Amino acid sequence: MSDAVTPFQAPIGTHDVLGASSAEWEGLIATFAQYAYRFGFELVITPMFEDVGVFNRGIGEQSEMATKEMYVFTDRGNRTHALRPEGTAPVVRAFIQHSPTTPWKAWYFTPAFRYERPQKGRYRQHHQFGVEVLGTDDPAVDVEVIALAHRFYEAIGLTRFRLLINSMGDALCRAAYVELLRAHLAANVDRLSDEHKNTWRKNPLRVLDCKDANCIAVTSEGPMLIDSLCPECREHLDHVIAGLSSIGIESQLDPRLVRGFDYYTRTTFEFVSDALDSAQNAIGGGGRYDGLAEQLGGKPTSGIGFGSGIERLLLVREAEGVEPRNLVNRSLDIFVIDTTGEDAATALVDELRRGGLATDRAYDNRSMKAQMKVADKSGARFALLIGPAELATGEVTMRDLRSDNFEQAQRKVARGDVALVVAELLTKS
Ligand code: HAM
Fold first, then answer.
1. 137 lines ligand 1 (CB under 6 A)
2. Which atom of ligand 1 is nearest to the CA of 89?
3. How do residues 78-100 score in pLDDT, each as one tens digit?
4. Alpha helices in 39-81 (DSSP H)
5. 307 close to ligand 1 (CB < 6 Angstrom)
6. Global confidence as pTM
């Protein structure tokens, strides 16, 4: 049935993953898991929904996320929950709840839900790889987190990406800067975009992120946070940039880089791809959030991490013309055909699978010809046929599905020897 006539479709801004693209997803997830493991991270899984307060902490600047983009619902127990719009706050909530040994290095792969206007590269449900490190403010950890993202992008074949870096300062130097910026915006309010004419007072930092030419003109004449950093924050940033450079990772200082969450302190960064339209060209981003644990009711604990959208990574790979790679090997070793209608196939596939062979079979007791067609399509290396004659003699017929020579392609093997014979042939082929 074509999509056009199905009564139900995936909701706007969401998508199904199947077929060839699911093999790419599997490959990317496996590669990320491998890199996270190499860098010493453990997998963390937290619930898909949380108390809304985990995301909407109601202090300081309010991010777009907290104000309008969350999927919020009240459950039957009258609790207000939100589907997670991002991965960081839930991980910090879990850290406070379980007090793992620090530094705690956790990675995740998760859907995230944001009620945004869908467009290419921007969805209402997207999926993120991410890592978080809690319990250290050593700039070496900033370097490591950024390096993990960078090495992963290289591993999946990306070449046209850049690392932008900035510092959001700490609670003190940033607050002083925000006042300077507010004063500058107040003096230039008439020149701001309509949106920011209304919101600059509450969210002055967001004006720095605005793509409107008038806002850019106003902010570029104004103060920059980089010039207001306290010596400790400036030193931290310099350390991170130098550390990255020492392992061959170049970064571009971008004083306009402010990210979409209110929790960031000190190091913030974004990886952008020059292969994508500039509107949605961030393939990953993150930073420090040294005050977040406290905001969530925990002890003061430094933290840093990043998130990277898998859909964007796939778009970039396509735009860069990267051959699908890092694919998980899904090819079948064996396809079992059984025309006896007994349990022979069930027993054989179980034995082969337990022996480590990727095995599939036909169902519905269809004709030999129909089952053979499925076997040919399956991509399996060998077909194993069980008909009444084979059942009677305790054998199976083994057929090499890649051979054109019918005589040589087919031979009988004793049922008890099948697993061994097939395994030997596969190692040779
Ligand atoms: P974020 O920048 O909002 O950060 O999202 C991380 C990445 O997810 C983006 O760079 C982008 O690749 C992808 N992404 C975000 N929104 C969408 C969307 N609507 N559709 C498709 N892809 C999207 C965070 O979420 C932070 N939690 C990152 C972090 C971790 N900071 C510290 N630790």
1. no
2. 27
3. 999 999 999 999 999 999 999 99
4. 64
5. yes
6. 0.92
